[in-house]
What does this fold into?
Amino acid sequence: MLRTPDDTETLADRAAEPRGQDAPGRLLVQRGLFFGPSALVPEDLYSKVECGAARRTRRTVELSPATRVTTNTYFGRFHATYWQRWTAIPEVEASATVTGTGRVRLYASDTNKVWRIVDAQDVENADGWVVRLVGKIDRFVDGGGMWLEFTTERGELTVTDVRWSVAAPRTPAPTVVGICTFNRVEDCLNTMQALADDPEALTTVEHVQVVDQGTDPLESRTRFAEVSAALGGKLRYVRQPNLGGAGGFTRTIFDATRGPAEEHRDVLLMDDDVLLEPEILVRLTAFAACTTHPTIVGGQMLNLLHPAYLHIAAEYADIETLRAGLPIPGALKEANLLGTDKQGRPIVQERRVDTAYNGWWACLIPAEIVRRIGYPLPMFFQWDDVEYGYRARAHGIPTVALPGAAVWHADFGWKDWDEWHRYFNMRNALITAALHTPFTGHRTVKELATLLGHYLVAMHYGLAATLIKAVEDFLEGPKSMNDGSVAAAAEIRKIRSAYPETVTHAMAELPEHTRDFRDTEVVRDRGTPGMPRATWAKRVAYQLAGIGRDSAFVPAGDAHWWHVSLFKRAIVTDMSEMGFRVRERDAAKTKDLAARGLKALKRLYKEGPAVAQRYREAAGELMSRGNWARLYGLDD
It folds into this structure.
């Protein structure tokens, strides 16, 4: 049975308080939202109706009798373990405006997902009362969070305007949102519109700068004028030649750090093609304002195609083997946030995991950090965020990937690896290795040689050529970035156009590439070989002898080198599942690419350490404000 609190009059008096505002000296760190920014995302990521019936909208939940609603969800939790580790904030207050009869509880969890009740308040016949619950940010060093639960028995309860706030340690720094776009007009306009549609979140930033590098400019659309009007004086629109993601993002950093230090602005970088949760502005700027030391604060990535899945909670790079996006031990990866564990408890990042860097799909970089470590490198794109994160670490600056602050971004697993941007992935990884490892060359050359061997037996000739070009251009030294890598972007597209298997065909074109349907029989992979080196050698021998099945259709998930190499001709599903590619054995290409690749790798092993030293010597100039002013054609 519900109990009526002794301080009912005090609660009633609070109804006169301004709603949607915070007391002086308090900082809003997150809002309690019950529904996403779009019906395209699951509302259970925000709040969950555990029993009974409730109506959820963006800011309000209406509970019928005998109902329980929890915010122990990805967006609904206050991730206290990150606040205890990276800030000195002693407690958090969760407030809500309630009408009706019911109970509001503040829960907390520990590293093992075991819950406890921190604070609670019963209300009866409330009419716009403001309930405030306080939780100490203690006992969360290794993990745990807080959330709210709303329950009714015989009555109804409406909850709105849930706000989590802390005593502000300092005034949040003025922050600029920087969006870089290239010919993704509708995606970018959608992102801008999402910002305009949430005026409260927009108040946390000074302005939004959109850097348009496309040949199909935003301003050519009627809708651009409408969205610009909605953003009003908050929008700054910049047009410039295409310098890739690095050039687009750095332009906002460049403009935000112009003049004396007291006029500098923090920058929240954001991709143009995300499904935006505007709440990320509130959470990243607030957390950055509370950290005890300058910190890069990153938002996490949820998969756009599978919106209940978290891409990765925290990641690192094995730089010498040129691999990024590796999960920190204990971090969730491709996790179903609506699922449960073996004990039936929600899947959340309960234990704190510390990331090495954060992707720039949404990432806040304080101006003080830019002053200390310089600007990003002109890499065009790929690995610019990784390099910057590791550079910050080398200067004693951490990065935090903050759970509950996220955007939806195109699933990486549904993008084909055999694309022109793979050149930048490999070349820029080599540059990062040159700057942040001893670069003896042994592990790196071994990894590239393995990749090259796999590409050749799998008839990935264009990808092999891409790898070779990346190595050759790295060996050219820092001058390859003199133009912001614009020439390299054009050259790699030209090189790849000579290899037919790099082209994706629509399924309607399949009859043009087959003699009859029997050539498109699906052949599944039988499993990973137990001795991969011996298997690779056997595949090479078979190919030299001309042995293999004539043709087969290989699903994307089975297109491993050891399987595709069994066929003389393989029709392979593109990872996007939108078409197919045709790979055919070509002995002449195999021999030519093997010879060129061997030559490039020998050079890398021999010359790599000296080339790496040249990159280290040139790094100061490459990341300087003067270099970027030159690339932008500005008189700075």
Observations:
- Residues 587-622 form the longest helix (36 residues).
- The chain has a mean pLDDT of 94.
- The CA atoms of residues 8 and 382 lie 58 Å apart.
- The chain has three domains: 8-167, 175-414, 422-589.
